[in-house]
Amino acid sequence: MTAPTATRRAKRAPIANCVGGVLSPLLANVALSVLDEYFMQQWTTTMATEQQRQKRRRHGLANYRLVRYADDFVVLVHGSQADTEALRSDVAQVLVPMGFAPVRGQDQGQPHR
Q1: Domains of the chain: which residue ranges?
Q2: Ramachandran sector of residue 60 (left: φ over 0; alpha: ψ -120 to 50; beta: rest)
Q3: Per-residue pLDDT for 12 more than 60?
């Protein structure tokens, strides 16, 4: 058995360079903790148990969950397009005072089938 050989890239650049800054996602992570707190409060008071979520569905209310990684996030919604738009407004109300402006992506607000 022989040891693996270095690739051409490894031979040219023995020191790896980070692409993008490490400070920006860190600062965004700290600033977005406000969004985490908002959604956690909503979750724990109204959607934490299966019974609460079923009751919300019976009453025509949406269930939703925030998923975040560093400076990215997505809100998963089990509800209507109107529910999604209302949550988008809620997110904006939380983020704008923090200096963030939500940007609509290609698939944002689209139902997943």
Answers
A1: 22-98
A2: left
A3: no
Question: Model pTM greater than 0.70?
Answer: no
Q: Which residue has the tokens 């109300």?
A: 93
DSSP code of 97?
A: G
Distances from the Cα of 74 to the Cα of 51, 63, 104, angstroms: 24, 14, 11
Nearest to residue 94, comparing CAs of 53, 33, 51, 46?
33
The residues, ordered by sequence, that sit 6+ positions from 99 with a Cβ below 8 Å of its Cβ are 31
Could you tell me which residues are beta bridge partners of residue 65?
76
Amino acid residing at 106: Q
Segment (H or E) for 94? helix 81-95
Which SS3 state, helix, strand or coil, does residue 90 take? helix
